[in-house]
Structure prediction request, 1445 residues.
Amino acid sequence: MVFQTDADLLGTLVGLVLTLFVFSYLLGDNAVFRFTIHLFVGVSAGLAAAVALRNVVVPHLLLPVMDFSEPLEWLWSFLPFLLGLLLLAKLSPRLSRLGNVSTAFIVGVGAAAAVGGAVLGTLFPQVAAATSLLDLNAYLADPFLSTGFGAFFNRVIAVLGTVAALVYFHFGARPRPGGYERNRLIEIGAQIGQVFIAVTFGVLFSGVFMAALAALVNRVHFFSQVIETVGQGF
Amino acid sequence: MRRLPLLSTVVAALSGGLALYLLFFQIPGLAGLRSYLLQSAASLAALALIVGIIHLLTVHLDKLIAGEERAVYSGVLVFALLLTFLLAFAFGPNFSYSYGSDATDRIEPANWLFQYVQTPIEISLMALLSISLLYAAGRLLRRRVNTFSVVFLISVVIALLGSSLVATGGFAGLSDAVATVSQWVARVPAVAGARGIILGVALGTIATGLRIIMGSDRPYGG
Amino acid sequence: MAELQCPACGQLNPDHLETCQHCQADLSALVSGPGDMPDESPMGMEGDDLADWLLSMREEEPDDDAGDEPDYPDEGDPGSPSAPGPSPSSAGIPDWLAALSDEVPPAAPEQPADSPEDDLADPSPAEQPLAEDPPHETQAIPPVDSPEGPPGWLTDLAEGEDSVEISGSSMQVGDLPDWVEGLVSSAGQLKAPPPAAEPETESPQAGADWLADLRGDDEGADSPDSDQPGGEIPDWLEGMDAIHEEIESTSMPAGDPDEGDPTGFAAEDEALDPSVPQVPDWIAQLANQDPDPRESLETTDENGEEAPDWLEKLDSMAESPASEPEPDARAEETADPAGEGPTAPEPDGLAQPGFGEGIPDWLDELQSQTPPIFGEIQPGGDRPGEALPDWLQASSEEAELAGEELSFEEESAGPEPSEPAGAGEAQEDMPDWLSGMTLDAEAGEFEGESDEEEAIPDWLAGFEQPEVEEIAEEPDDEPLPDWLTTMVPAEDQPAGTAEQPPASMAEPGDFSPAAEAAGVPQVDEPGDAQEEADGIPDWLSNLQEQVPSLEQQEAGEVQDWDVDLPEGEQQAEVDDPEWLPAGEPDEKRDPLPAFSQGPDEIAPGDVPDWLEAMRPEDDAPAPVAPEVSDAPEQYGPLAGMRGLLSAEPGIGQAGKPEAYSVKLRISDAQQGSMEALRSMVEAETEPQPAGRKSLFSEQGILRWIIVTLLFLVVIFPFFLDLPISGLPPMARPMGNLGRLINDLPAGAPALVIVDFEPGMSGELNAAAGAVIDHLMLRETPLALVSSSPLGPALGERLVSRELAQHGYTYGQDYVNLGYIPGGATGLQNFANFPRASLPLGYDGLPFWGLLNIEAANPWNQAPLQNVGALSDFGLTLLVTDNPDTTRSWIEQVHPKLKPGTFVVIASAQAEPLILPYYNSGEGQVAVLVTGVAGGASYEAFLTREGPGRAYWDSLGLGALAAIVLLFGAGSFNLFLYYRQLESERKGRR
Prediction:
């Protein structure tokens, strides 16, 4: 471990102590752990606020309003500034409703962006990918499945899994005397989809565990480096 | 005040509808308007983040002033928040302060706090998550034993095998077989299920977004 | 108690007197009646008791004042009208008075559908008999067995009735007792109307107005009773109620419950009830008894000589079978709203022999207009000597006349909602006099009736037969007006139809909102009654003078009727039914028999258009109507008659109606349930202390095993310092990424998106480090950006700390564009307008330096000088741990990028959800590097050592340990699971 500055050395020690504080949670909730968590939240929030303020609010909301050289542009700039003021009203319980207008503006534009992105960026490409099994051009180009039966099988599985997983999220049911009942085909598809989703979640869980394990390895590696550095006398 | 909900709905519908229109019909003359809408909304979103942080600060300040049982932790939070904010905002996050003539006698206060305080803590928390996840997976069979849980655990084991020493330990044919099976599971059935999930999310996003634009869904408190 | 209350003037007299010392009214009926009646008779009240309840009433009525809200729950008590029997709370109140309370308007709170209490309480008992009643049943009077013959006093009554019969006119003017004159004097006390009301009462419409006011008075009098539990009903009244109910249940006259309160005005009565004074007792008795109607009639007649005449006419009408009430038939016979005259059947009934003899002109007019009522009212039509009291007939006639124009809603809100007693019980409790009535009825025209009907007295048969005849004569198609139907059961009360809802009373259109609010009915078109005013007896005229005009009522004016009362009694009128002067017999206590009123005396077709138009369309619950309709007249000469306008105008209406509370009343069980639910909800919101986990429990040991094993296997490779495993399998060819970076144009910047949380830096620094290292090796200008507020700091750390060996300098070799807010919105803005979206970067400028935005603009610095759009970046590298943000970048930004240059370095936890984009076939993700394995693979591709390779051994071992632990922990917990199942099975065994 190389310390570029004295502050790095100090920071390494601080980091080591804080890591131990967090690991103390393995023994149960304790004051040290709570102190560490509050410290972490404070630093994180402070930095995020500073970044947001410097990076966005100041250049986009404050500075344009302070520029009166272009009255028309100033008017254009004042509207988001006004919405920002209304948004600050959220801090007051009595005036919080005023902020709903600003929130509505954020949500409205955000919904439009999300819809457009979902349609163009996910829905069409993924549907096309999922229906590739039905692409006759692929079979005409390779009528004998030279890529192997395995590839064809994989595509069948991919289509089946996609459709079944979508069916699994279909919660429509018809009212029946004994309650609500889904269509039998839907029910079968949902059962198959549940298997695919279970596999997906299993892989996801594995990935999360590996990511967390990588963090653990990182901390252990950090310990080993500190111990090694200390053993070498810095 | 009574008509604020209506105003909010109108604002959401108009802004969303206009933004959506300008997205699909990119009219050159209205590019500025589109940028204006998007930038204003994004800037307000950043301000909303700040508002949330201010609220967090006030809550803990209240606790600190009230002298509650664990006010000391609130004091730590407030102190850390204000200190970090002042350092990062006033001097810039990359601000470097030299306290000596030597090249090593310098410090970047905001980055230092981030690198040696926040990052170690967060990584350590993530490390704890590995233990919790493993413990939870082991207890899964304690709570329920059904098809879903069995398939789930089998998938976890197979996926882990692909990253484990078994797949990379050079155990002759075993490693290749394990790696092949693991990769197949992660690429074919898992991707199939993931694609279904993604499509479901996309459809849900479209539906929700359109509902918001049409005013039938008002998550902004209208 | 050696005093008797004069039925006429209401004042007390020594029991030895046969005539009232105040009004010279005949008290013999009072003396003989109670004594002759059996104990179980509903009228089993002795003369001594009579004085008691009078006194007690005066004493307790103030307490029974409705107050702000009537005591609704009590209505559902056993002591409620539906459950006869005095309640403990009413111990101090005479039974008969309690019965009044149940019969009179306060019924509003009892109305099940409209009152909120009814929702909580059991359905009003009144609903039960009514529900059983067949609607529009032609048989108006059910058979009632009364083996016992009528008592002597009843015989007298019958004689009196006969004398009152229109045809017979046996009662001469000279027969009018002296006490009638006293009644006149007492009525004169009520003459003085409020100043504001005088003009109104003097108007031609006064005839209708005062009737409306009278009705309102009844309501007002009833309100205090609403607080009284139904258990206060006297036994004799219960018997009556039972009889009425029985009759109703067996024969549903025009007073169909459905028609009872179609308007739902009963609910409004609730608001009115508290404000109105208590119903006079004597009226209640009048409504239920039939002691000596002649006396009561005389008391009401100011002119003792005139009264006999018109009473005789009325009596003759009552005797005439044709005039006897059949609800439906009577409805058809009802005079038209304009008062032009009766329908065809009515004249027939009025044309009985002797009719018109000695009857004043005005009475002739009235009779010609409203024959059916009298026919119904008259108890023993055929029996000579048994006659409906003249005054009652007259009053009923007038009431009906007025009823054409007046709304009887307030009266209809009257009581007697429900007397659930069965027919047999009713018969058993039936007093002798009533038995005589049934017998008379049997001897009457009801030959075709069942055996039970044979027991109906003749005079009662007189009620029934006319109805039957009229039913046969007149079509049933025409619905009986609501307000008229209310009168039917009232007139039939002697036959037990008292409970039938005087639907007409509940006619909503009859009242204006203002009047309703004032608790006073309003007359919509009183002009017709004005014609009959000429024929109204003087005592009625006096009453008219006392009553404020209906217009005033509509205007919401406060009723000043109390002004008319003797001094010192005004307040008592409001708060206390004992408004009568102390020491004087209360009119309310006049034990006059209760005359039921024919329900169908007015044909539905005769209802004025305006009245029909005002009829509410919504149907109120059936039980409401009977309560409303059976309100007996409590004041004045009309006392005892049901469905009539009260003779006592606006008692208790001096002030505005007392506010009533809509406070929800709930039972104890409901209260308990509510508390239970509340406690459950509160328990959910309360934070539960985190239980201390034992370190040495089964699961604690398992947890420690996991911790120990994981730490050991992770630490082991670092201290071993030897590679224990090979490189991870190349999931994807890293060569593509290598070639992509190597092919970057010189000077073409790369956009590095650092979009992950600091907690993932352990994995992603290892994954992205090699790729960024490759870029820096290529001296590629870098532009850092992030959609996370902490991302710029992570990027700064990655470039300037992790890869500090490359010596990249901010502003020269790289820039940090900073934070893109707004999620998809900000990303879309950044994709389309990158330079405008991030004018200030993540730099080290002080705050004041930001004022010079151009100088601080990262886009003006060297790495990005040639970048105008995202497509100008030679490579876009997304380092992410979140599939959602990855999707946003792909959806929003990818279309603006240079095709095939979008590389994603993802955490292992995001890979499954990013792979579909990578495999989509459209090149949304050109290269995907996943986790430490990907970083180690790229390091291997670069033949460089980095954190990826350093972590890989520990990860490989850790993954293997995790598999082992999963098997171990899974097996252990599976064993516990089955052991638990086994124990549960044993437990079930």
Remarks:
- The mean pLDDT of chain C is 58.
- Chain C touches chain B through 77 residues (CB under 8 Å).
- The first helix of chain C runs from residue 28 to 36.
